[in-house]
Specification:
By secondary structure, the chain is α/β, with parallel strands linked by helices. The protein has 2 domains: 1-127 and 184-272 and 352-371 and 414-496, FAD/NAD(P)-binding domain (3-Layer(bba) Sandwich); 128-181 and 277-347 and 372-407, no CATH class. 27% of the residues lie in helices and 18% in strands. The protein has 12 helices and 17 strands. The strands form 4 sheets. Strands 1, 2, 6, 7, 8, 9 and 17 form a 7-stranded mixed β-sheet that branches. Helix 1 runs parallel beside helix 6 (186-194), helix 1 packs parallel to helix 12 and helix 3 (111-125) crosses helix 12. Bound molecules: flavin-adenine dinucleotide (FAD). Flavin-adenine dinucleotide binds next to helix 1, strand 2 and helix 12.
Length: 496
């Protein structure tokens, strides 16, 4: 088949772009390096998922000091969205503006330009809120009380209401993958809707190793090569391999074609890596906790304007035994686990050019993920204050907090390495998602995010991807009209 577009990767960005392009009648090849996840229940199994880390990537990287690290990447159809906690929040309107002092880059588009795509994504993902359960309601009452100043809001979630009828899934959606499709992820909300269309080919187990340039014009990509040696051609190539991998493909493309020496944006590829400053807080109480979903509310505080707190999913003895440090005796972990309420504290990290992803040089050596909080002191200091205040407020209501900061290997919220902007000298991707200086190479994953915001990124990645795909369809139609000198037929999808 001759393809209009090849999409590399099937996470939030890849799945949303595939959906839009296929619904618009475009012929799409979606290449995903991982397999489709099994539906045999193993993705809900605590021992396999957290104990043996059976579904986490094993590729070795180095950190900024040259030490070996293994980032917690996921390779499977649907990407990280199959494992995410389904908290699907829009970025705030003010988070589209820059703030040079805090190293926050401006978006090249106004918040309003994303609004219709946020709405479409929310509809497709079935975003809803759930009632706050009794134990969390008590914690929220305390945190919002006098002298504490926390604001509590319902947390929008991409979960089916039917999940409450399946306790095994309701207890295991945050960090697990739903075999029944009760969590709205990239696969269930986007790919399954178009999977049977004849104009979509999904190939799993195919790692794209290179983007191929036209012989006559390096600014035109004509296809990709996979690790099995297969070559695939298309009119357009969309990178959606995630913020750790799309920049690696672009770096090697620029190196091979010599564009790295001429395009002003080339030096920025892989830079400005962001992943939120993250801490998990586990609050121990003498009493067993019975709330089921838990992750139903968002906590904000005026003193920490670039931060938010949300509960983690279910804890019990089995789960805590699997994630607790190995020095903790298992019987202790099994006693403590059912008495824990978990929270996830996140602070927006600024963009520093030295926080970056570096690909292998000509295939030699390991990729490098260099991220140092000392380069983004505003974010580091706000986060420290946030953790201290939140822990203090938990203690005041008789809960014993234990904090664990998430290290550089915690790449769940990776973004920003092919940052979008108007200026080709200060960004890699333009407002239409096209790589500056390239004719037909687009980026639709989290790499483009100029800011990581105070909340989780997936909804914004879906929305960006739908917007880029919609613009691409318009351009294809305009081109066809010009070529045929005849009126174009409308080719836009219905959302449902
Ligand atoms: C445990 C966990 C919990 C999370 N919770 C939330 C949450 O509650 N809310 C939220 O908004 N976000 C959450 N996130 C983050 C969210 O899942 C990511 O932000 C989002 O999935 C990123 O989308 P993406 O398209 O940029 O990349 P990914 O989802 O990482 O997709 C990239 C895909 O590309 C594939 N790929 C990579 N390289 C290649 C290659 N060379 N060739 C072919 N394919 C390739 C990968 O296998 C992968 O499938 C969570 C993430 C994790 C891991």
């Amino acid at each position: 088949m001759h393809f209009d577009a090849i999409i590399v990767g099937s996470g939030a960005g890849g799945s949303a772009a595939a959906y839009y392009l296929v619904q618009s009648g475009r012929r799409v090849l979606l290449l995903e390096r991982g397999p489709e996840l099994p539906r045999d229940g193993s993705t809900l199994d605590v021992e396999q998922v957290f104990g043996r880390q059976a579904f986490v990537e094993t590729e070795r990287w180095t950190d900024g000091q040259g030490r070996e690290i293994v980032p917690e990447e996921r390779s499977n159809l649907g990407g990280k969205t199959r494992w995410y906690g389904a908290a699907l929040l829009r970025f705030g309107r003010d988070e589209f503006a820059g703030d040079a002092q805090r190293l926050l880059l401006p978006w090249p588009i106004a918040a309003d330009e994303l609004t219709p795509f946020y709405e479409a994504a929310e509809q497709l993902l079935g975003v809803r809120t759930f009632p706050v359960e009794p134990e969390l309601a008590r914690i929220a009452d305390h945190l919002t009380g006098p002298w504490r100043g926390w604001d509590v809001r319902p947390l929008p979630l991409g979960l089916s209401a039917a999940i409450l009828d399946h306790p095994d899934e309701a207890k295991h959606f945050d960090g697990f993958a739903s075999p029944r499709g009760l969590k709205s992820d990239g696969q269930s909300a986007f790919l399954e809707r178009v999977r049977r269309h004849p104009n979509l080919v999904i190939a799993t187990g195919r790692t794209v190793t290179d983007v191929i340039a036209s012989d006559t014009d390096p600014t035109r990509a004509i296809g990709v090569v996979c690790d099995d040696g297969t070559v695939h051609r298309a009119q357009h190539v969309l990178l959606a391999a995630g913020a750790l991998h799309s920049p690696r493909l672009l770096q090697s493309y620029f190196e091979r074609t010599g564009l790295g020496r001429t395009l002003p944006s080339a030096n920025l590829v892989g830079r400005n890596y962001k992943s939120h400053v993250l801490t998990a807080v586990l609050a121990f109480s003498p009493r067993r906790k019975t709330d089921l979903l838990r992750k139903t509310a968002l906590f904000l505080h005026d003193d920490f304007p670039r931060s938010s707190v949300q509960p983690l999913g279910w804890f019990d003895g089995e789960f805590f035994s699997a994630i607790a440090p190995s020095w903790l005796p298992k019987p202790v972990a099994r006693f403590v686990g059912p008495r824990l309420y978990g929270f996830f504290l996140q602070t927006e990290d600024g963009s520093h050019p030295d926080n970056r992803v570096v690909a292998h040089a000509h295939g030699i050596g390991r990729p490098r993920l260099d991220y140092d909080l000392a380069r983004i002191p505003h974010a580091r200091d706000e986060h420290r204050g946030l953790v201290t205040r939140f822990n203090r407020d938990l203690l005041a209501m008789g809960l014993m907090p234990m904090s664990q900061s998430i290290p550089v290997t915690g790449t769940a919220h990776a973004c920003g390495t092919l940052v979008a902007g108007n200026d080709p000298g200060a960004s890699v991707v333009g407002p239409d998602g096209r790589v500056h200086g390239m004719r037909n190479l687009y980026v639709v994953d989290g790499s483009v995010l100029p800011r990581s915001s105070r909340v989780n990124p997936a909804l914004t990645i879906y929305a960006w991807s739908l917007r880029v795909a919609s613009g691409l369809v318009q351009r294809i139609e305009q081109e066809r009209t010009r070529n045929e000198q005849s009126p174009a037929r409308a080719g836009h999808p219905v959302w449902a």
